[in-house]
């Protein structure tokens, strides 16, 4: 899906790692949420509450999911992150992403 219709966009940005990862939240009519953002090159460790589906639009990164080895991801591509877990990223080039939160 190239665009989203009938959504509410959060005015305030989500800013992590001193601005090296940023996003904006969008809320759908059914209450589901996604974030649209940018990741700059670097190494990061993040955690989840809900299951997440990370859609990489452009860029290259490596991800280490729980109990797995590093895996390279080149956009366009996607991967899933389990709920209540930590994962690591090595962002190799600017990454444009959309993250879906699955309750």
Task: Provide a concise account of the structure shown.
It is built from no helices and eleven strands. With 103 residues, it is mostly beta strands. It has a single domain, classed as Jelly Rolls.
Give a verbal description of the structure.
With 103 residues, this protein is mainly β. The protein has a single domain, classed as Sandwich (Jelly Rolls). The chain has no helices and eleven strands. Strands 1, 2, 3, 4, 6, 9 and 11 form a seven-stranded antiparallel beta sheet that branches. The chain has a four-stranded antiparallel beta sheet with strand order 5-10-7-8, with no helix packed on it. The chain is globular, with a radius of gyration of 13 Å. The model has no long low-confidence stretch (mean pLDDT 96).
How many helix segments?
Answer: 0
Form type: globular
What is the string of helix and strand elements? EEEEEEEEEEE
Mean of pLDDT = 96
- What is the CATH architecture annotation? Sandwich
Largest sheet: 7 strands, antiparallel
Question: Uncertain regions: pLDDT < 50 for 5+ in a row?
Answer: none
Gyration radius, rounded? 13 Å
CATH fold group? Jelly Rolls
Ends distance: 20 Å
Query: What is the domain total for the residues?
Result: 1
CATH superfamily: Jelly Rolls
**Helix content, binned percent:** under 10%
CATH class (first level) name: Mainly Beta
**Helices and strands: which structural class?**
mainly beta
Q: Count the beta strands.
A: 11
Q: Report strand %.
A: over 45%
């Amino acid at each position: 899906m190239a665009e989203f219709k009938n959504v509410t966009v959060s005015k305030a940005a989500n800013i992590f790692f001193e601005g090296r990862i940023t996003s904006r939240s969008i809320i759908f009519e059914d209450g589901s949420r996604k974030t649209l953002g940018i990741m700059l090159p670097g190494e990061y460790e993040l955690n989840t509450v809900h299951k997440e589906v990370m859609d990489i639009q452009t860029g290259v990164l490596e991800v280490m999911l729980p109990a797995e080895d590093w895996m390279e991801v080149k956009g366009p591509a996607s991967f899933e992150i389990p709920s209540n877990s930590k994962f690591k990223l090595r962002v190799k080039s600017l990454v444009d992403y959309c993250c879906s939160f699955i309750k």
